């Protein structure tokens, strides 16, 4: 009896094929860069940006590029430097060192109004005494754009944000999601070179956030403005962005398409930050009766310096040994979570293990608390702490190659 599951349902399948040609993930020992196709001009380029607040290093030698027309996420925990970077690009903060290039021009010393940047804040920042139409057209009005042109552009944007019937309403008469759409339309009205969004959905409830994420992605596919948005929400970054810049403690940890980062993290922080991961020393994977030790199979020295990083959905669970590498574990808890069933297992006192299965397999699985089971990985990443490097491993492929080589497994 066995069961397994594929990638989590929330993971965006569009990432798989869309970036296969230019989606190599990169890390940043010095200057991290996004993979850009040759035909795309660079919309935003940040070079060696650093910023301190007193003794606190908010941003530490950050470099990255955003291709023209891409939607890129700055993702990281609180205090990682996301908003500081965004505000520096906008001109709302000044860097201690480094530079900002916008569409090929050095904008480091330019004032905010000359950068051609649209900015959307978390808390709408709409003018309460102005109607929706006047809020959207405000930036054009102060630029002394002709009245007829303002009306035409506002009408176009009202259609784009699907609020054409709300032009005469005031912000207090709108829902939170509608206000954020108006704020986005106002930022787009002057046709900015780049659009910057600082946790645009952070003040909204979960259901509205889900709806606006889908809407923002569709909107971006229509307008193709180079966009950079800040979020601490992994799911938000995965669903919306073309590329993700993962930050921690003011430094870039890794850059790449969502699925590449998820499946091939460059370091332990990225692996743990981008979803649940089981971390187990490879010394636990020993040859045994009816099973094969993964460390031996992959010719990795089983030591305290090597660890296996395995996602819950990359594990199969069996009631019997089947000749593959395995961990022996005991079922500690079984928890239905909507469409998935979570098994919390215990290898020993120091090594808990979590597996996720589709709920429709729960009858087939038939495990109960206290049962001894055998857990086999289908895919994992080996982290060598000695050299600080990750090695992705397709376990089934490694087994097949061993069989073909006559390893006697």
List the keywords.
409 residues; alpha+beta; Rossmann fold; OB fold (Dihydrolipoamide Acetyltransferase, E2P); 2 domains; six-stranded antiparallel beta sheet; six-stranded mixed beta sheet; 31% strand
Topology:
Layout: E1 2-3, H1 14-18, E2 42-53, E3 56-67, E4 71-75, H2 82-90, E5 97-102, E6 105-106, E7 117-120, H3 132-142, H4 147-160, H5 176-188, E8 194-198, H6 206-223, E9 226-231, H7 234-240, E10 243-248, E11 251-256, H8 258-263, H9 268-273, E12 278-281, H10 294-297, E13 306-310, E14 315-318, E15 327-337, E16 340-348, E17 351-358, H11 362-365, E18 372-377, E19 379-384, E20 389-394, H12 395-404
Parallel strand pairs: 4-9, 4-10, 7-8, 8-9
Antiparallel strand pairs: 1-14, 2-3, 2-5, 5-6, 10-11, 12-13, 13-19, 14-18, 15-16, 15-18, 16-17, 19-20
Helix pairs in contact: 3-4, 3-5, 4-5
Q: Overall pLDDT, averaged?
A: 81
Strand residues, percent:
25-35%
Summed up, the helix count is 12
Helix % is: 25-40%
Taking pLDDT < 50 over at least 5 consecutive residues as the criterion, the unreliable ranges are: 5-39, 284-293, 405-409
The top level CATH class name of the largest domain: Alpha Beta
Describe this structure in words.
The protein is an alpha+beta fold and 409 residues long. It has 2 domains: 2-116 and 192-272, 3-Layer(aba) Sandwich (Rossmann fold); 276-404, OB fold (Dihydrolipoamide Acetyltransferase, E2P) (Beta Barrel). It is 26% helix and 31% strand. The chain has 12 helices and 20 strands. The chain has helices spanning 14-18, 82-90, 132-142, 147-160, 176-188, 206-223, 234-240, 258-263, 268-273, 294-297, 362-365, 395-404; strands at residues 2-3, 42-53, 56-67, 71-75, 97-102, 105-106, 117-120, 194-198, 226-231, 243-248, 251-256, 278-281, 306-310, 315-318, 327-337, 340-348, 351-358, 372-377, 379-384, 389-394. It has a 6-stranded antiparallel β-sheet. A 6-stranded mixed β-sheet has the order 7-8-9-4-10-11, sandwiched between helices. A 4-stranded antiparallel β-sheet has the order 3-2-5-6, covered by helices on one side. A hairpin with a 4-residue loop joins β19 and β20. The radius of gyration is 25 Å and the shape is elongated.
């Amino acid at each position: 009896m066995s069961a397994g599951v594929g990638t989590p349902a929330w993971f965006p399948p569009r990432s798989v094929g869309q970036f296969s040609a230019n989606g190599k993930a990169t890390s940043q020992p010095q200057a991290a860069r996004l993979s850009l196709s040759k035909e795309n001009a660079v919309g935003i380029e940040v070079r060696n940006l650093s910023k301190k607040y007193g003794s606190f290093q908010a941003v530490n030698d950050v470099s990255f590029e955003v291709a023209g027309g891409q939607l890129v996420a700055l993702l990281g925990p609180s205090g990682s430097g996301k908003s500081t970077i965004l505000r520096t690009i906008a001109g709302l903060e000044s860097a201690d060192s480094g530079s900002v290039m916008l569409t090929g021009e050095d904008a480091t010393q330019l004032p905010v109004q000359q950068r051609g940047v649209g900015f959307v804040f978390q808390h709408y920042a709409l003018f309460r005494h102005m109607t929706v139409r006047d809020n959207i057209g405000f930036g054009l009005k102060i630029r002394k754009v002709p009245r007829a042109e303002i009306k035409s552009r506002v009408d176009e944007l009202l259609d784009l944000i699907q609020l054409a019937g709300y032009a005469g309403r005031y912000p207090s008469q709108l829902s939170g999601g509608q206000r954020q759409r108006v704020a986005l339309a106002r930022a787009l009205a002057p046709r900015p070179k780049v659009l910057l969004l600082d946790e645009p959905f952070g003040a909204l409830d979960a259901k509205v956030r889900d709806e606006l994420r889908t809407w923002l992605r569709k909107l971006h596919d229509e307008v193709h403005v180079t966009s950079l948005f800040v979020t601490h929400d992994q799911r938000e970054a995965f669903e919306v962005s073309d590329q993700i810049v993962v930050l921690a403690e003011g430094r870039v940890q890794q850059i790449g398409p969502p699925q590449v980062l998820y499946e091939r993290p460059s370091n332990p922080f990225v692996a743990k930050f981008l979803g649940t991961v089981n971390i187990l020393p490879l010394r636990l994977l020993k040859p045994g009766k009816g099973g094969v030790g993964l460390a031996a199979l992959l010719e990795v020295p089983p030591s305290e310096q090597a660890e296996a990083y395995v996602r819950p959905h990359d594990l199969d669970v069996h009631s019997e040994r089947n000749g593959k590498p395995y961990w022996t574990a005991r079922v500690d808890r079984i928890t239905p979570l909507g469409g998935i069933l979570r098994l919390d297992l215990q290898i020993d006192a120091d090594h808990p293990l979590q597996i996720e299965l589709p709920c429709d397999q729960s009858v087939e699985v038939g495990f109960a608390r206290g049962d001894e089971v055998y857990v086999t990985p289908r895919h994992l990443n080996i982290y060598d702490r000695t050299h600080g490097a990750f090695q992705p491993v397709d376990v089934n492929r490694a087994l097949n190659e061993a069989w073909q080589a006559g390893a006697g497994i």
